[in-house]
Amino acid sequence: MPDRTPARPFRSREWFAAPGRSDMAALYLERFMNYGITPEELQSGRPIVGIAQTGSDLSPCNRIHLDLARRVRDGIRDAGGIAMEFPVHPIFENCRRPTAALDRNLAYLGLTEILYGYPIDAVVLTTGCDKTTPSGIMAASTVDIPAIVLSGGPMLDGWHEGELVGSGTVIWRSRRKLAAGEITEEEFLATATASAPSAGHCNTMGTASTMNAVAEALGLSLTGCAAIPAPYRERGQMAYETGRRIVEMAYEDLRPSKVLDRRAFLNAIKVVSALGGSSNAQPHIVAMARHAGVELSHDDWMTHGYDVPLLVNMQPAGKYLGERFHRAGGVPAVMWELLKAGTIDGDGLTVTGRTMAENLEGREATDREVITRYDAPLKERAGFLVLRGNLFDFAIMKTSVISEEFRARYLSEPGREGVFEARAVVFDGSDDYHHRINDPSLGIDERTILVIRGSGPLGWPGSAEVVNMQPPDALIQKGIASLPTLGDGRQSGTSDSPSILNASPESAAGGGLSWLRTGDVIRIDLNAGTCNALVDEAEIARRRAEAPPPVPESHTPWEEIYREKTGQLAEGAVLEMAVKYRGVSARTPRHNH
Asked: How far is 6 from 174, CA to CA, in rounded Å?
């Protein structure tokens, strides 16, 4: 293999060559010998490439990476690099209690310290489950060494009794059927488990598929990476090519700071709208942008994302699942439609070493049932609607999942289209909701808005996916499958509920939901982007003087630290003290002896 000169000296040389400190070089080299690596390899001047391993038995959505890492290693070795695999703090949305949202920032911290403090010249970020993608990209931006995202891919399509059943989405739909008495608990479990037929993450356009699409839209994955199902042979081939490419990126010194600019993040916002992507994309995109030093405003979601049409017919906003989306052309086909329409910017550099436009050339969709043409979309104006008012300074509504039934009931009054008023019923957390939702004394009817508070970053803590509340059983049995919902937490990206989410500031931070009372009337004007409780200022002032809703105590040291350092969902729910650290790899850590 011919000698190559890196564009910037590899930082691992400061460990294994340790200029002027042979005693330290000996110390750093010595213990690597115990598994058979040689001093010649580590002192060869070849790049040390980390594989940030997010796969484990605790992270089933990412477990495929335990196998894919071997193909990544093959690619790294064939391209002239040296692979070093290491574990990352596990994140599993479905099972982590009280919420996996606590783990995004914790995984970020741990990965940042590894990438900064160890002799790593470049890194492959293995992603899959929701928060593994933003946590890895946040850390890569903080350290700023060459980094590339390899997603593990979605599961194969789920089927039950001849019908497609998608991750998460089938659960939200089946629990309504259970409440209506249409299925038994055994049938509920059977449909839920049928949605998970193979290795991989959610096969719907939930947060996992959305965030891995975002990585590709940002230019941090090889073209076509995001949507390949985990069991497909192309996934292993993509892993190999990713391993090869990261070595070239190390020599080119192609770092996140050269890829992640404002246009890349605006592209990501637009792609999420076209995909019918998860509402969780909002805090994650904001978090990644802040760690990259890119400014995004609240208005950017409306100015750049709201008018984008829905192009992807995939659950929960549509009909199909991940396999057919991949075969239709996946993320590149969607971006090709957006590029042809002049909606996204194709001039930005990507990890391929080429521009986004060059990557997308000719990637037209092959299945127009799944990926429509830009001028014949499933829905017009499918982005997130930003709302403000006396209850919060910022919240979003996912418009691509507003059903015709919901629109007819709440948004179609003649002369007041897009405006509705509803009586609030307020719950303090999900335990309170589950305990009282079927209480007839609450008087919940079709003109009720269900409100949940205490579910944000400070109140939960971590922010929980609890806002997609279903109506009481009695209403469901009458055919009313959904009510307006509002909360200072999140909802699953697999949910088909057009909830008002991520309300900031949250009730635990003194936001307006803290003084809202059951029986108050809330007016929502989607045309003006406002949401207000119809309560006079004097009464609001009186309520603010009362004791705020209770907040559960912290149960672990990390919960306490998280609450102390984390901001609101509107601002990405990041560790606020962390965003000032960028490009820390420019200075090598001092010796440890």
From this structure: 55
